[in-house]
Design goal:
Elements (H helix, E strand, L loop, with lengths): L2 H14 L6 H10 L2 H15 L4 E5 L1 E5 L27 H13 L4 E5 L8 H14 L3 E4 L2 H11 L3 H11 L3 E2 L9 H7 L6 H13 L3 E8 L5 H18 L2 E8 L15 H14 L5 E2 L3 H12 L6 E4 L6 H4 L8 H10 L3 E4 L8
Parallel strand pairs: 1-9, 1-10, 2-3, 3-4, 5-6, 6-7, 7-8
Helix pairs in contact: 2-10, 2-11, 3-11, 5-7, 6-7, 6-9, 9-10, 11-12, 12-14
The structure holds iron/sulfur cluster.
Iron/sulfur cluster binds next to loops.
Length: 357
């Protein structure tokens, strides 16, 4: 056996023995192992964490309160400049209508996110949360770390104070958006005005300490190298060791349509499945891995359930950000159920904290 084959076998043996991988071992596994071996190892890891045959999903809606954003990330097709055609800030009437429609469809959560608006102060967001909570019984999963850092800067307040005020006004949990790749070389290229890697992690650590659960994401397949992708996973794993506050990890490939970043095609299904499998294997302390049907479509998402994913995310009654990049997969709840059952699993609705409904 050659040295490289011996090394690969020793890494595979570690995964089978349920021993944590080093970052460099994860990179070798990604590069050297064939697709089906990676899938089998990720599936083994998933079965250990979730021995039941359940795949979860949540009925919710993405509500983007504004598309006005001063960040101008190079991968984003969603934002508009203030005053530009198509720019908006949601009205209370529109917000109420969207929440009522969500509740009528059995929704239990809204994902409330928006652009980094230059003029809306923290009071606006506190009142927005209070408005929702005073009228509706719905979980508010809102404001990713770049938004929290933006609020802190715009209001000249510490991050803790921003989080405490939002929590008091009704915020229930925080989405892991805006992480892209948590390496500042990459961030300076793709989203130079957004928070740094350290700031993103700091918001999550502080949120976890305040008792807010969060998710974590990774947008891959643009300008990052494989070691940078693994570095991203390592930073998430290290923080999870400290706080235990991440409920799930969601890797999704960069969608190049209508953006100014790079003219390369989106990551293939092959690369997506390999990356998903490495996430499941490496992030041994994160309980749930979500498949991204919104970027991959139903067929790849179904295969993903055998490559480490145990969750299909949200029914996304409404989704605007990925759709702005020209990707518009749409799945009603009945179709999500069909996909899960077709892959041999039992579908179950869940809440943000993954409690089954
Ligand atoms: S990704 Fe978010 S922060 Fe970046 S430009 Fe788009 S809306 Fe703004």
């Amino acid at each position: 056996m050659s040295d490289s084959a011996f090394l690969l076998k020793s890494i595979i043996d570690k995964v089978v023995a349920d021993v944590r991988l080093l970052p460099q071992e994860a990179a070798i596994l990604f590069e050297e192992a064939d697709l089906l071996t990676l899938g089998a190892l990720a599936n083994l890891k998933r079965q250990r964490l979730h021995p039941d045959k359940i795949v979860t999903y949540i009925v919710d809606r993405n509500i983007n309160y504004t598309n006005i954003c001063l960040s101008k990330c190079r991968f984003c097709a969603f934002f508009r400049e203030e005053g530009a055609e198509g720019s908006y800030v949601i009205s209370r009437k529109e917000l109420a209508k969207k929440i009522e429609e969500t509740l009528e469809l059995g929704g239990v959560q809204i994902l409330l996110q928006g652009g980094l608006h230059p003029g809306l102060k923290l009071d606006y967001y506190q009142e927005l949360l209070e408005f929702i909570k005073s009228r509706y019984q719905i979980h508010i999963h809102g404001f990713s770390p770049p938004e929290i850092i933006h609020f802190a800067r715009l209001n000249n307040l510490p991050v803790e104070t921003v989080l405490e005020r939002l929590l008091a006004a009704g915020l229930d949990s925080i989405p892991g958006g805006g992480a892209e790749i948590l390496v500042d070389r990459v961030r300076r290229e793709v989203s130079p005005c957004k928070c740094s890697s350290r700031e993103w992690l700091e918001v999550m650590e502080k949120a976890h300490r305040l008792g807010l659960k969060t998710t974590a994401t990774m947008m891959f397949g643009h300008i990052e190298t494989l070691p940078e992708r693994i570095e991203h996973l390592n930073l998430i794993r290290q923080l999870q060791d400290k706080t235990g506050g991440f409920t799930a990890f969601i890797p999704w490939p960069y969608q190049p349509g209508n953006t100014s970043l790079i003219s390369r095609p989106a990551a293939s299904g092959f690369e997506y499945l390999k990356t998903l499998a490495i996430c499941r294997i490496f992030l041994d302390n994160i309980p749930n891995i979500q498949a991204s049907w919104v970027t991959q479509g139903a067929k790849v998402a179904q295969i993903a359930l055998n490559f480490g994913a145990n969750d299909l995310g949200s029914t996304m009654i409404e989704e605007n950000v990925v759709a702005a990049a020209g990707v518009s997969y749409r799945l009603p709840e009945s179709e999500l159920i069909r996909i899960i059952e077709g892959a041999g699993f039992q579908p179950r609705r869940r809440r943000m904290d993954y409690a089954l409904l």
